[in-house]
Structure formats: structure tokens, C-alpha cells
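Mods, move this if it's the wrong board.
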Amino acid sequence: MNTMVRNDMASVVLNNRSSFTAKNTLDEVLGNAHVAVSGSVNVKVGSSSLAGLASKQIGGSVNKVSQVGKSMENYLFNGAQSGNYSIEADKSIVVNSGANYFQHTGKNFSKSVAHNNSESILGNSTVTVDKSISSTAKEFYTIVAGKRHTIICGGSKVIMNADGSIQMTGTNISINASSELILRGGKVKIN
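Not the wrong board. C-alpha cells:
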């Protein structure tokens, strides 16, 4: 089916609308595209998504088109793997959430940045790793704390305060220098 509209085209659906394509679909927009949704948006990719859509309640009624798609799944998507979801933009991609934002991946998560990376958090930040964590900088590595910086490993602890005081706590503390070891202070107390 081919449809050509030289000027404007408007489509109004007062209730629900469903669409099913057995093969591929392509939408091209030469100008701008705007999508406004007053409720929620769900996007599922992969052959297994048909079963999920078939059980979805949309506008209080079952999505009949998805049920038809599920019935065709045996010979259309037999042996198909879960699909990928890609987003590409020549310029910027902006994601804005008025409430909470969640990210979850079933396996690995990787991020690659060609230039700079910055992150700003107005509240608190917590990172929990079940195994190991490593951080490497080829040039400089700076950690700045406005009031206190604490490093704890079992019974060992190093506390650095904003007033310049540093407290080291541990069972056995060793300081080794392959060359010179210089200790300077107004008073050096050794107990």
C-alpha cells in the first residue's frame, strides 16, 4: 500500500489504535517529529515481546493485533534471538525525567566517552560493588573532600579533616623509604 499526501494529513482516534507488521516498517520524516503521550510508553524489542504485548491491557481492552502477532510467531520468528535497541543522533540526545530514573541490565554495562565526562549530583551518591573495583588515571588523579575524607580497610583507618589534622589507626603501621625519610613538625612526639 502506497499513500502520498502533498500537504497535511491528520489522523484522530478517539479510543484505541493497533498496528501489526509481519516484516519491516520504516518511517521517514524530512522535518521535525513530535510525539506526545499523556500516559505511559512501553517499547519492547525481540520476538519474545509479542507474548508480552498480547497480555498487555491497553485502554481497558486486550491488544487484539498483538494476539494475532503471537499466533504468527511460530513460523515468522522461529529460532529468532532477542533483538537489539539502538538510538543514534547526529547531534545531542537529551533524557529528562521529572521523577525517578532507573537503569538495569541483565549482564554487562559499558560506557565509552570520546572526550570529557562530568557528573553533578545535588544529594548523596552511593556505589556498591560485590567484588573488586579499580580506577586508573594515566596522568593525574585528584580526590577532594570539603570536610572529611575517610579510608577504611578492616581494622585500618585513615581520616583526613579539613582543619589539616590526619589520624591513622591500625594494628601495625610500617613506613618504608628506599631513599630518605624526612619527618618535620613543630614537635615530633614518639611514645
